[in-house]
Amino acid sequence: VFYFSHGGKINHVLQIPRRCFLSDAATELTIKKQKGGWFGSILGMLGVLTVGGVSYRLSTDEGSRRSVEFWSTAFPIYLHYRWVEWRMTNAPSREAEAEFDRLHDQYAPVAEALTLKMKGFYLKNAQTMQDEVPTSLEPGQARRIVEESTGRKFEDIFSEFDDEPCGSASIGQVHRARLRSTGQEVAIKVQAPGIEQKFRADIKTIKDFVRLAMPQHLTPMDEIEKQFVTEFDYVGEAENLNEIYNNIMPTFGDEVIIPKAHTSLCSKNVLVMDYLHGKRFIDGVKDHFRKFAEMQGKSFEEIEKEQIELMKRPDFKFKDINAENSTVQKYQRILDAKVAGINFMKTCYNYSLGWVLQPMEYNQREVLLNLAGIIATLSKVHGHEIMVNGAFNGDPHPGNILMMPDGRLGLIDYGQVKRLPDESRVGYAALIVALADEDVDKTWEVLQGLGVKSKYGNHDIQYRLAKFWNDNNSKEVTGGRNLQQFIDWVESEDPADQLPEDLVMPGRVSFLLRAVGNAFGIDLHMAKLWKPIAEKVLAENEERVHNSKMRKSNLHRRYSSILYRKKSMFENEEE
User: What's the confidence (pLDDT) of residue 546?
Assistant: First the structure.
């Protein structure tokens, strides 16, 4: 629903209802005037004032205009989906899926184009389209914002500055520059003026829609709103970058790289950080498939279409991430051995006949694109952030991932960093272990410790819901229902009374990472991927609780059974 907007001019949106209102009102007022006299006149004046007030409001307030654009398109589409859902209630699953596919095909292209038109919060949620955003600042405006922000002349800070942005996003754009003091290459992120007000208006519109159409999503929306608004403070993002850098690089420095912020040059609307020479994740994947298509004698578009059609087939099965990772690694070893063998033969030639004849050039190592390995690394890093550090990026979409020349992943954009207190951090680790073990009763026990409350306390329903958000959304979990049908079913069986805000963003991270995997046909069970991290966290915190005055704390009371169980498991492993 975040993608919906209206493509026509705002005048066109208003003209139709205005004409309808005036023609109907004129007839109605004529009748009432004949019957009621002065009452009809007053009603007519109120009608004119109402239309005039609404028109004035829409002509002067951008937030109201954007709200009308959203509602005029989103609500009819929502009703269309609901109507099809009702009509397909007793239909066979394949028939229902085909009907929903037709709806998706009908509205997706419109939603994409119009989301790019609306920008703001709607575009922010269309994560994979972000780099298609046109520049949001006028020529030279970025320089002026930097000077105003720092209070220094631009030339005193930077010896080079590329006026052409190297990246554009929903709230601003990024420029490459070079520091005059050190010669270091940096990236300057500049926030577009007025964008915060536009975002806040958009979020209010979305929340109004959710309140009416999907009230069960209102609590998560409150937490998402809280996290989104932090993106407008670049000083906070600079601190986030350096904190995450210090947390992650000592452990994962061989697999990922995070830019450091130059805090002395940062302000609310300007962020200066190290420049990463990486390729966008999506571009890297496309380049790989273009090479593959060329080897097959096909175009990239043909390969893409074949993959989409394959994933639409009823018998399509997602690949297990661990099995796929092992397969690609095996092929990489075979390819490396082949290249090494060829180069050995060339070496023998070059140091014999090559002295007399023309020497041969050596073959270069060809690196396969291991999507499963990339996604596994992303999952591991974010699981560490959530459960070990308690400070994590709540927005790990493909636009925030770079493929570096040295094979590492570049992780950028830490505007939405969520921090968990120890009780929530350890509690989430306990939840992950319970879900990985598929222990329904233990999951309910942990959920209660985290503060989850439902009307009937149905263990199975709440277990399925926890699996859905934090682990896997397979048919075994949802019963074959789509997302909205599943949420509606949960609400009808065991409505939620209380959902702690600390559970929202970890669940969002799990969902986004799974979405990246599913886009490439890879199935992720996040609880199983995160279980080793969670078990270590539980073992370490049991030791901390055991050796401190925290034994009688909430942390100990809530998760003692799992803490002791995991401690015993680790002790047995050591023996």
Answer: 53
- Strand-strand pairing, 401-403 and 409-411: antiparallel
- Contact in structure between 257 and 245 (CB atoms under 8 Å): no
Is the Cβ–Cβ distance between 168 and 34 less than 8 Å? no
DSSP string computed for 27-77: HHHHHHHHHHTHHHHHHHHHHHHHHHHHHHHHHH-HHHHHHHHHHHHHHHH
Residue type, 114: L
Q: Tell me the two tokens of residue 192.
A: 């577009």
Max CA pair span of the chain: 114
Between β-strands 319-320 and 522-523, what pairing exists: parallel, antiparallel or unpaired?
Answer: parallel
Distance, CA of 529 to CA of 547 (rounded, Å): 29
Q: Specify whether the CB–CB gap between 276 and 248 falls below 8 A.
A: no
Contact at 8 Å (CB) between 129 and 6? no
The predicted pLDDT at position 20 comes to 29
Give CA–CA dist 155/179, Å, rounded: 10
* The predicted structure's pLDDT at residue 556: 54
Angstrom CA distances, 348 to 359, 360, 572, stand at: 10, 10, 54
Per-residue model confidence as pLDDT tens digits over 201-210: 888 888 898 8
- CA nearest neighbour of 383 among 522, 225, 527, 495: 527
Residue 454 has pLDDT above 70, yes or no: yes
What is the share, in percent, of the chain residues with pLDDT greater than 70?
81
pLDDT (tens digit per residue) in 544-574: 655 544 444 555 555 555 555 554 444 444 4
Token pair 């004046």 is found at: 45
Do 142 and 32 meet the contact criterion of CB atoms below 8 Å apart? no
Separation between Cα atoms, residue 301 and residue 120, nearest integer Å: 30
